[in-house]
Each structure stands twice: as C-alpha cells, then as structure tokens.
Fold these 3 entries.
Entry 1:
Amino acid sequence: MSPRPRNAPAVLPAGLFEDGDFLGSVEPTDLVYWLLNVGDGDLQLILLPERESDHSRRAIVVDVGRSGKLPPLLDSLKERDFLKVPEDGQLFPLVIGTHPHDDHISGMPEFLQLWGHAVREYWEPGYWHTSLAYQNTMHLLEDADPHIQHTQPTSGTTRFIGRVKIIVLSPAVGLRRRFDTYGVDLNDASISLRLEFPASRVEKRDRDRAYVGLRGKTRTLLLGADSLMDSWANVLVDFPVLHPQNAPTAEAIGKAQGPDALDAEIFKVPHHASKHGLNLGLVEAVSPRISLISSVGSGGKYNFPHLVTLEALREGIERTASSGEAHKPDWELKIHYTAEEDPDGPLGSMALVIPPKGREVGLWRFRDKPDEPIDLAKARRFAPK
Amino acid sequence: MTADEDQALGARLEKLLRAQANSRQAPRWISDFLAGETADTSVEEQGEARMVVTGPDGDSCEIELRLAFRTPPAVGKRPWRPAGAGLPREGIEKLSYIVVDEIVGDDADVSISPWPLVDDRGRLLLPAEQPLGVHAVVETLRAYVNRADVRAGRRSIDIRMGTALAAVVRTKPLAAGETRLEKWLVPPVYDITAPARDKAKASFYAAVAPALHPKEVKAIREAASE
C-alpha cells in the first residue's frame, strides 16, 4: 500500500462526531455558514439570523462552483420551513460570484435560472472571461435587469444586511483598474470578504436612540475566495494590521477603524490552500480560530492543498518552528477540509452554526461526496471529548 | 396548447399543490380551496409568480408558481460563426469551444464545451452539458497548438487564462482520463481568443446597462464629434 500523500488530510480518529438535530440546534439569532463539498471549488451559503420584523431568514450565496448541489439543499431547507421566500420576494439580498473561474461559477447559471427571481443584488469583480459559464451568468443578469442590482465592488465597499456587516477586502481599486490590461491574474480579481456579526447598531430608547458599539464582541468571518498574494499585498495596505498597538499611528487608525481589521475567528482559506494563496504573515494577520479548506484533498488538478501552505497555516496557529516540536493534528488546530474523512467515510460539506458571542460555534458535517446532494438527516456534530 | 391540454395541465398543477398541502398537514380550508370547493377565502396576487390565500380565521398560505428554465429558451439559435478566425464554413458544429480557464504555476485547467449556439441577440449560449475539465501543462499545450496548425502566416497562439480555442475534440479518451493532447485534441486548432473576448466583453456590458439602439449610438457619436 502506497503511503498517504503528506498534503492529504489525515483520517480523523473515530468518535469525534455525535448524532444530533442540525436544524433544531439553530437558534433564531444564529448565523449559519455552509461550505459545501464541491471538490476543488467553492460553494458557500450564509443563512442570516432571523429578522425581527417577520422572523424569516435571508441568505447570501458566495460562489456556486458546481451545478446540482445548491438547489436541492435550498429545496430541503424550504420544505422544512427553515427558509421561505419573504413577502418582498427577496430571499437572497446578495449573491456573489467572487471571480469567473468555472470552479466558482459553473453552477451560477443554474442557480440564477431557478432562484434569480428572489435575488436582490449580484456582486462580481468586473473581470470578463471567455468561459461560457461566465457569459451565461451575464446573460441571466441582463435578462433580470433591473430586478437584480449588479455591482462591481472594490476594497472598502460595505453593506449591512440585517445584523451582519459585510466588508469587501479585495480587489483593491488599483488592481481593479488594471483588469482590462489582461495584466492581473484572474484569481487576484477575487472578491474576498470579512463579515461581522452582530454588527454595531442603534438602540431605541423611549423617544431617543443611541449607538451601540459592539467592537470586540462580534463574530468575524474572513472568506478568502481565490485571492493570491498580489491581492493580499493590497489588502494589507488597505487594512493595515495594527498590533503592536504602542505606536501613535496604530492607535489613531485603530480608533477610527477598529483594530485588527483582518482578524477573523473563522477563515475560509484562499484558493483551496494553494501555495500562492497564503503565507505566514497573512495567517498571523487573520489569526484564525477555525480554518476551512475546500479542495479534493491531494491529487486533483493541482494537488491542492499544497503542503507548504498547510505548514504556514499550522505555524500561524501554533508556533512550533523555534522549538522544532511537531504540530498537533489539524482537527485539534481546528483546521477542517471538505475532503477529510473519518473511519466511517467522507465527512464532506460542513456547516457552522454561529451564535452571537456566549455560546460555542457548532460544526456539523454531512458526509456527502462532491457530486452528491446534501442529506440533512446525515448531519453529525463535531464533538471531540 | 388546446383547451383539453390546458385543463390537463391545470389538473396536474392542482394535484401537485394538493400533495404539498397533504405533506404539510395543511388545514382543511386549504384543501377545500385547492379542490375548488371554495371556503371563506380571499386571494391576492403578488407579482407574476405568487398569490397569497387567506382563510376564514385569517390564516394564510402562499402559492408560488414560476417557470424555471433549466436550459435557455430555444429562440433563434444558430451556431456561432466568429469572424476572422479562419474557421471552416462547413461542419462548424463539430468543433468544441475550449477555454484555458485557470493556470497555476506550469499547469492549466482547460474547459471544453460543445460548440456554442448564438441567440437572436448575439449571445453565446451555454450548452446543457457541464464542460469537461482537463489538465494540461502550459508549455506542452502551447507547443502542441502552434504545431497543430500548419497554415502559413498565422500568428502564434499564446496560452494564458482566457485563451479560447476551437478544434475537434475526441471526448471518449477524455472521459476515460486520457490527458495526452495528441489523443484528444485534433488539429487544426484555431485561435478564437479575440472574438471570444469580444463576446465576453459584450455580455458584461449588456448585463450592467441596457443595450443601445443603433440610432442612439449614432446620436451619441454625432454629439461627441461636435
């Protein structure tokens, strides 16, 4: 038997998962983040907390890297009354095609055909591509005009949707202006995002109101799309990392913007953990507590995830380079792969149930392969003893 | 559609709705309403796809109905004939649409689709089949496609993200996992990058703003030259 490739996720030990009621575990105030197993590609679904006004959930879609995967999941959630089209018809206030590679938008035409009527706004980087999936996505947006607002955001674009604040980290304006020269790698056109939840808000007070600052009390997600180092270099300029905070400049920027603009509790690792998508400096800037990787897990077209990237991620989470000690297993470092397995088989798609601070983030797995629909009845909760 | 067929479709829709009502343990008044045995209900249509039915006690249910096209509607389709690419006049539909979708280091991800049709607005249509993805080494692909076309005086084909090619593709070896170019990519290979980029650019601009009428373009140009 040939040895397991060093970049393949280790087989998790038995007994780390327990049965449970996935949908029953979600409180009305929780945000649910899905990273679906589509192999070397991305498909992310974010179910927002219930709205106070009508107790309905809305959803954000970030990339649809495969057809046949998202629609059955949406149907399942609708059948269980977990999702329903609200009175204004806008179940999806935002859909994002981070960049026009097939492994990110090949399922977008199918999604827009089936659900475009319920989409309010579509974001894409504005980098046109010769693929037919890209052109057909544009055709569907053309047909939907003016029903769907169509936007090409750049770094700093911010949208508040309910209790969630969405900040575009990339592409930087400087990169955006170079797209048409064909001089920017299409991956570097990617829209990467930081989500804060719950976002700062205003509190009603009798006949007055007051700003409620929640800085430091929010959950944060950084969704890295396929941004590579040219893009991240610009991000580090636009969103400087401020620690150590004993410098007057850092203190001033921190007061204006909040410290550690890249710090994120949950990190969707860029570009399937390729060697060009991440370095140690970026991991240290993000300082993730949970890291998620979407790839086939060694082999595949490009042998993602790359070992050098995994080592940078591990070192950024657990510093052992100086001592020479071995890192803990990835699951103990809270690095999770769509491609990982345990003795019972593939673990597949994952969903994080993210409460406002106070309760633990719950990780659920669905044991699906890339070409299989998700069966909610197979949900198992990650519960290491 | 004849009146009988129309009625048959109505009956089938009613059957689907009643099955949904049963599976959701709907109240009796909803079943009566769907069966045409009108209870004390009111119906409000919202937009072109939704109606809200309110029952005797003020409870309500929503009925959504929409046409979801799994493939683009077949209106005015014809094979795409890009100008200036030197493609053969006959048998163009036997070619495949090949895109260098991604390059990582020395390796390329090549996306292969059946030859696209074009609709009556000049838009390339995505075939129903998912594109085939195949791995290629960039330099090997570059050498092959430039060797594969023996026509004199042709510019060399560059291989970068977005390069689009037209050629006959043998799909059986690809489906079997064959990646050697000579086994699946049949010469000659045509470079259609320029017209494909024109199509992509047009699809982007048509999606962000309505297409202009030729009279509007003429007026804009005349105003700009004054």
Entry 2:
Amino acid sequence: MVVREKLAKGDFNNMSQEPQPDGTLLVTLTKRRDNHVYRMWVKDLYKRKREKVIKEEITEVNDEVDT
Amino acid sequence: MAHGAPDYSGMKVDVVSRPEWAAKEATDKNFLGTATTQARLGSATVIYAVTSDEALYITQLACAIYATAAADADLNQMGSMRVYDATDGVALFVQGVNGGAGIPFNKSLVIPTGHTVWIQAYNLSNHNCELVISAGGYEK
C-alpha cells in the first residue's frame, strides 16, 4: 500500500483523480525530484470501512518529474 | 562603490506573490480531476483528506466544461465549480461558469489538518459534458 500511504501522508506535489469504467478511481501521484509515477486504483476512497485499494503501480520514468 | 553608497551588487531581491513564494518554501500541491460523459448534475471531483500535520491552502482554481457530442459543441456549456469542506459540511467557494473559468485567490482557502476537501466541477447543461477541475496551492 505504498501509494495509499503517500496519499495519506500528503507525500506528493501533484495528484490527479479519474473515475474508471469499472467503478474504480484512478489516483496518480507525482513528486518533484522523484523519478516515479505512483498510481492506484481504489474503490470508495476515504470511506473508511468500504475503501479498498484494487491495484497499485509504481512506474519509473527517465527524467525527474518536475512539473 | 560610488559616492559612499553601499555595494548592493551581491544582494538579489525577488518580488513574488505569496502563493508563488509558498509553492517554493512550503509543499507545493496541484490537483486535477476529470470525468467523461457526465449528464446534468454530474461532476468531476478531487477528494483529499489533509492528514499531514499541515493545513492545505488553495490559491487557485480552474475548470473546463465542454460537450461530449460534437452536435452540442456550440451550445452554452453551463456549470459550476466549488470547493467544499466535507468535514464541516461547508462550501468555501462556488462559481458559476459557461465553458470554464480560472481564478487566482487573493485570499487563500484554508483546509485545516484532519479535514477532507472536495474540489468539484459540475455539469449544469442539458446535455452530456466532459469535465475537468484543477486547483493549486500548498501545504504548510
């Protein structure tokens, strides 16, 4: 649950949220001077008892994210 | 040094806005939410719980609303954008738009630590629309 922890700690500079056709929410996090893109597909984000992270994906990018 | 004036050549001073300064000195935060094919009252929403020990300051907000179908592209694209403190149940900012808008805040919207904020764009047109909402700010 690396991505979920980063979200919980506010350990990011940029976040996007995009609903997916399967009912999940795609949350993407990036941070300056960190050459990774953090993605998770989650259902019922912030709904304590129902929240469920379906999948996480951490992608290394060639250049540091500096947007 | 001429005429006894101090030598300021080594000193650099930048005049920047507070949000610009904060984005460098605090933790810069940018949010983007999208939603496709939204009927009237559908929304694009970014939800964020401020759980660090810092508060979130929102310094700018923007949205775009455009028709899903090409046949509706020339119509008015009515909608609204808002910032809602879901913990307190209070809307901090609401603005009606036609097609989209962007606004920098002279006075930041403050989301205290422990609170959850919804940053939203709503479709208020009578046809399906694509929605994008973005916000910028910092945590400190």
Entry 3:
Amino acid sequence: MELNALYNQIIVENSRAPQNRRKVEDATIALEGVNPSCGDDIVLELRVKEGVIEDAGFTGDGCAISQASASLMIDLVKGRTVEDARELLHLFFGMIKGEVADETRLEELEDAVALQGVSHMPARVKCAVLAWHTLEEALDGKQPQELRL
Amino acid sequence: MNELQKQFPILTVPENGKRLIYLDNAATTQKPLSVLKAVEDYYRQDNANPHRGVYELGVRATDAHENARVAVARFLHAAPEELIFTQNTSEGLNLVAYSYGLEFLKAGDEIALSVAEHHSNLVPWQRVAKATGAKLVYFYPGPDGRLSEEELDRKITDRTRLVAIAQVSNVLGLEAPVASVVRRARAVGAVVVLDCAQSAPHLPVDVKALDVDFAAFSGHKLYAPMGVGALYGKKALLEKMPPFLSGGDMIASVHEQSVSYAEIPRCFEAGTRNVGGEVGLEAAIRFMDSLGWEQIQAHEKALTARALKGLAAIPHITVYGEPVPEERCGVISFNVDGVHPHDTATILDASGIAVRAGHHCAQPLMEFLGITACARASFAVYNTEEDVDAFLSSVEQVRRWMGLGT
C-alpha cells in the first residue's frame, strides 16, 4: 500500500478545511450518516430549492478520509441541480469501486478525484463514501432514524 | 522469527510485503498449529453428532464434546455440569440475560454495570431493563480509569439485583475490583455476571475463588477457533432457570402438548454443537498450559511496559487509563493528537502492523472519555519486543503523514 497515494496533499488539507464544516441556514434537509463499525459520524445539511442545492455543510467527526471526502463533495455539488448531483454521486461510486478509471470522465469530480487511492483499500471505502451515501439518502428523502431503547 | 511464532502459520506469511506484526489480539488471536490440527483431526477421525448415535463413532464424538467440557471447566475451576458451551461471550451473556434476567428481574429492580462495558455486556441488559421495567445504573471510573470503592458503594444498593461487569476492560485493559463488587453484591443479594472475554486470555480465572454467579468467555481470544466459547453458571441458579434456545438435544422428553428438559448443562445447549470448535478450545487451553501462566503473564507485562514507556516518550500521544503495566492485561488504547485513529491504523498497516481503531464496541465508554474512537494495541504470547519497537517507531511517524509537523 502506498500511503502517499492515500494521504495526498488534497486529502490531508481538506480533512481539516473549515469552509464546509458548518450548519446551513434555513436547511431543508438534515441527515446523519454513520459507519457503525468505526464510529464515523456526520450530519449533512442541505438547502435545496427548486431542484438546486443552494447550500450544503456538514458537522461531525471521523477519519481524514471521511472528513476530506465530505468537504470535497460539498465543494463539488453546491450550486448544482439535484439531477447533476446524482450523476456525480454515481461517478464517484464508480471511481471508488474501481469501475471508472477514465481520467477525462473523472475530471468532472474535480478535487474529489484525490480520493481515487481509496479504490485500492477495501478497509477504507466506507470512510470515503459515507458523505456521498448520506447525500444520496438525503436526496431520496430518507427520514432520520429515531433512537430507541 | 522465534520458535513460538513458528507455531502460528499466519505469522509466517508476509502482509503487505512485510512481516505481519499482529497487535489486535484483544479482538481475536491467531491460532497455533496444535489447535488447527486438533480441529482437523476431529473432523477426520471422530466426527458424528454427539449424544445421538449408538455406534462407535458417535460415542467418540460424544467423548470429544464431553472431554472438552471437562477441560474448559477445569480452566475456569468450575464443575463440568456448570459449564455451558456457547458460540462466544455474547451468546453466554445473552443466555444469562434471557434465562435469568427476564425471568427473575422486575420493575424497580436495578442492574448495575460499568460504563466501560463492551456492548455484549450492555445491550442485553438494556433489553432486559426494557422488558422488565428494571433500571440500569452505571458505575463511572475515575480519571485513572478505575472504579472506586465509593462508586461501588453508591451504585450497589438494596435495589440492585444484578451486577454485570467485565473482569478486564477491552479498552482500558485494567482489572475491575471483582472481589469488592462480589462482596457488595452478596450483601444485598444481587447476582454477579462476569464478562471474562478480555481476562481469560491473560490471567487465571477461578470462578469459585471469585465467587461470581456467572462468567462468560470466548475461545477465539485465547488461540481457539472462532464460534466457540463457554458460560459458567452456579448450579443452583442454572437449575432454576428456564432454557434459552430450545429444540434438539436439550430435552428429556417431548409430547404434543408438553416437554421436559434435559439436566443442566445440556438443557442450555440446543441443536448440534460446534464440537470441532470445542476440541480446538481444549487444544488452545493445552497450548496455554504448556506455556504456563507465569510465563504468559511475565511476557505480556514486559511487552506492555515497553510499549507504555515508549508511548510516554513520544509527544502528542494520549493513553487511556492509568499507564501501570503491572495492572494492565496486554491492552493499550491511545490516540495521536489531531489524528483520527483510523488514519493512525492505516499508517501502521502500511508497515504491516495490525492495530484496532474505532469504538471497540464500547461506545458509552467513548462518550464518557469524551472521544468518538481510539486506536488499540493488544498483545499475545507470540508478540516480541521487536514487534513493540516497530509499533512505536510507526506511531512516531503518524503526525508527519497527516501533515502535522515532525
């Protein structure tokens, strides 16, 4: 395993980047995403109006991969239509699964392409996709699960 | 590679092109050849369904099952009739929760347990509390990770009917004051359920001397195959408990509208058992006997002391629980400032070092400590000083990889 490919400058910097780590004013959707086996836990907030993701932010805690991934995803989808965002989600999942490796296509993912190294690391895939799955579920209208005893 | 390591086939195969340095022994241990061979021999030579066939092979399978029970009972200083084979610690604790907790606890009763419990010794009690109306009361450790006598006094009261506690925390690695817990439980008439998952691999467990009512452990954390473990229960309690799982082999006779159950412990062992695993567990106990507790403990304490001393010398490291090697059971949980433990574990993995990162199935303890996760290195008999030194030098590199200086 090449640590350089995984912990590249974009990921290391974005894992601590503050710009998307915030609550969203007048959010229309808030959804928690959790990796139960490891405790990565984020809350994604979106303001979606007339089919456009006007604003997005996240709060939470997790490894550098999950946190950088959330921030890079928000950079990518903010201001896009829901439809465009869904296409980008599928492209990202394709990259992480190793199914899409074509560089020209992956350019659409902008800086999120820095997470491609994860495609060779099954143990960290769930960290990389946490935010993206949460966004997918949020756009699908999934409701938060209630805590219970 | 030393002679002991050579007995573990997995340690002889490179991992990521490097020698495997396996420091996730608190999750599960690797298996020696003697255990692998015992399981294979059982299936090659003695396999049939125990307690069923009258043919010679069936008798050998029954003997394998019952001889393993005698060996495991002796390991815990229990009588064989008080020893129930389970899949693992979780199943043992669930058996107690369902067959004792649901049957004998009621609204207003209290279940006392430590906030440091593994989810296996916590979630079953949440379910018992919900079903019976009993209340969960938590012990909280002090800043050193220990339970004080005052805390036990405060929480074990006339309302306490059951105390569930791990003999050794799988995160902090410290031994719980079991004698103090049992003394107080006796005084108020509560039963004590001891989770030995993390203690049985590292120290002799004598259920009679401890005078606990139930004790559960997993084979796979002490060199045995996965899928086999045991539960000890005091005879007088087991005899008044209803079965947990029901079906084949746990009955005396069955009629259309009625049933009578087998004697203990068979009434708690429904269905075909994991006899291959039980034989493997017996072999694992023989393997530990061949080393002896004195050697096992001296070795693991020496490695723990070396690791704690080394970690103390590295800046930006937090170790959870008092760093006293003499009182630690081969477990060190830690974090590197500014770095999530998953990243720490991935960076160590690149050097062939396997450590656990996450909440260690102890989320309430994580919340109590004010963290979401930590990294954990844990030792077994086959680890060496060289392993510890490789671990320490890799930990030293973590912050640099994450762009946090040298």
